[in-house]
Amino acid sequence: MWWKKKLIRAQICILAGIVVGFILLHGPLAVLPMLPIVVQRPALLVMPAKTSARRPEMRGVWLATVANLDWPSRPGLPAAIQQQEFTALLDQIQGLHLNTVVVQVRPLADAFYPSHYAPWSQYLTGTQGQDPGYDPLAFMIAQAHQRRLAFHAWFNPFRVSNQENVLKLAANNPARQHPDWLVTYGGQLYYNPGLPDVRDFIINSIVEVVHNYAVDAVHLDDYFYPYPVGQQDFPDQSIYLHYGAHLFARKADWRRDNINQFIQQLSRQIKQVKPTVALGISPFGVWRNRAVDPTGSSTRATVTDYDSLYADTRTWIKHNWLDYIAPQLYWNIGFTVADYETLVRWWVNEVKGSHVQLYIGQAAYKINPGGTGAWADPEQLPDQLRINQRYELVRGSLFFRLKSLLRNPLDILDRLRHEFYQYPVAGPLT
């Protein structure tokens, strides 16, 4: 009965073909009846797919070292304790699904690394100029990168000291060696931005870090010319007469040009040394008020970037000297003098058409569980993040500052974990 055996083999082949075809058409679902244990698998697989598809987003936090605000917890700790504290902070940052840490590596005219341009920081050992026994910057970068956190090196370029006695600076501090570079204002010491030698010196000091360390970005905050102190004018008249009066009829225009030159040259030199290193700035949140300039924001701020700090952010964006800008929008929604969403919308329009990424500086330090008003409302900061999400050009947030966030006021950490940062994502510049 050879023909029956042949028929049976043919039927088996046809049946096998149908089964294989069904599996190819319907994938894993075709075998679900045989493997009931995988019924839960689709839910597990969806999560990573959702994570990988999410748009890159800045999720950063400032870590302030000036006055030991965030780290080290106090000056003079042994190196091993400083390192333990720092890695513990990074672990918490990573656990929040943040992706960037902005560390203040030169809070004054001092450094958290060995430098030819600045003495060791007093916030490490308690004594300016004293070697802490290791390279904190190299350690911090390595630890951040191990956790897949971008490391932005934060510099305060012109601020020298929070007191005015030059003799209290380390003997090898360049500010002490060049007293003609200094200006005393409001009880503090500053490098004078109007001096070309000062600008070159500071640029070289920043590029030193870009050259020697694997930083992902250079970050400057809102301190250019200092914030006004009462009616006192920044005492640079003689320098203006020498360097600027023949070019600029108004001292204010000369001051802005000094900062513009500084930013342009810094940007150019960073890219010459390492084209992949970003330059980011976090300015004060109001460029100009509309009452002064019809293209300004609908605000009534008493201090502005352009007129008070001589920081012409519009020019920096227009010329693409920056890779990102993160205005400090530290006001609540509905604040009549400077409404949060009004300013988000204004900054979105500023970066439109440029290559500059926009992040928002968020005021985590203002959350006030025991107070009254807008910042006692647990929805204030979450609502601000929701506003950010409505604008395509807002590419993320930077929170000021780390310890303020980690205190978890009004359960903000839980809100971030469960509502905004459920999944890790890459940063926009990675």
Put the structure in a nutshell.
The protein is α/β, with parallel strands linked by helices and 430 residues long. The protein has helices at residues 2-26, 41-53, 79-95, 122-125, 136-146, 174-177, 196-212, 237-243, 251-273, 305-309, 313-318, 340-351, 380-389, 402-406, 412-420; strands at residues 58-63, 100-106, 150-155, 159-161, 182-185, 188-191, 217-220, 278-281, 324-325, 357-362, 394-399.
Report on the structure:
There is one protein chain. The chain has 430 residues and is of the alpha/beta class. It contains 15 helices and 11 strands. It has helices spanning 2-26, 41-53, 79-95, 122-125, 136-146, 174-177, 196-212, 237-243, 251-273, 305-309, 313-318, 340-351, 380-389, 402-406, 412-420, and strands at residues 58-63, 100-106, 150-155, 159-161, 182-185, 188-191, 217-220, 278-281, 324-325, 357-362, 394-399. An 8-stranded parallel beta barrel has the order 1-2-3-7-8-9-10-11, surrounded by 5 helices. The radius of gyration is 27 Å and the shape is globular. Residues 1-52 have low confidence and may be disordered.
